[in-house]
């Protein structure tokens, strides 16, 4: 399984970015796809989506970020609006198999595969 992210960059506070992640090498349906971010500390689960398009967000991004997927294109997205300086981090696409729970999908121990990461920088 390979995950390749794109779409990071630098924006001023209040701006928007959309991250993309192309997933290849897995055709099953029992899985979760997630976005994590990491600064100096541990990796934090940001949002996750299962094969039924059920989503879960961490509280700090709820209402500002939207996770979605295009199953025909095997692509995961993260639309980020009203970005804040505290959103600055390296963002990672992640996949966990098989699906167990949305909560586990938001934890690093629930991840089987990681992308290489894409940097998001928000200036104040």
Question: Main attributes?
Answer:
single chain; 124 residues; seven-stranded mixed β-sheet; 1 helix; 3% helix; globular
* β-sheet strand percentage: over 45%
> Kindly state the mean pLDDT as a whole number?
94
Shape: globular
Main beta sheet strand tally, sense and closure: 7 strands, mixed
Unreliably modeled segments: none
Describe this protein's structure.
The protein is mainly beta and 124 residues long. 3% of the residues lie in helices and 50% in strands. It is built from one helix and eleven strands. The chain has one helix at 102-105, and strands at residues 2-6, 9-12, 17-24, 32-38, 44-50, 55-57, 65-70, 75-80, 89-96, 113-114, 118-123. Strands 2, 4, 5, 6, 9, 10 and 11 form a seven-stranded mixed beta sheet that branches. Strands 1-3-8-7 form a four-stranded antiparallel beta sheet, with no helix packed on it. β5 and β6 form a beta hairpin. The chain is globular. The N and C termini lie far apart (37 Å). The model has no long low-confidence stretch (mean pLDDT 94).
Task: Give a short overview.
It contains one helix and eleven strands.
Could you outline the blueprint of secondary structure elements for this entry?
Elements: E1 2-6, E2 9-12, E3 17-24, E4 32-38, E5 44-50, E6 55-57, E7 65-70, E8 75-80, E9 89-96, H1 102-105, E10 113-114, E11 118-123
């Amino acid at each position: 399984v390979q995950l390749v992210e794109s779409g990071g960059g630098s924006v001023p506070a209040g701006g928007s970015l959309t991250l993309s992640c192309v997933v290849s090498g897995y055709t099953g349906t029992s899985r979760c796809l997630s976005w994590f971010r990491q600064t100096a500390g541990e990796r934090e689960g940001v949002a996750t989506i299962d094969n039924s398009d059920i989503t879960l967000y961490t509280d700090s991004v709820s209402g500002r970020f939207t996770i979605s997927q295009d199953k025909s294109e095997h692509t995961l997205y993260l639309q980020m609006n009203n970005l804040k300086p505290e959103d600055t981090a390296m963002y990672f696409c992640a996949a966990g198999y098989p699906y167990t729970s949305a909560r586990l999908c938001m934890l690093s121990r629930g991840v089987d595969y990681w992308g290489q990461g894409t940097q998001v920088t928000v200036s104040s």
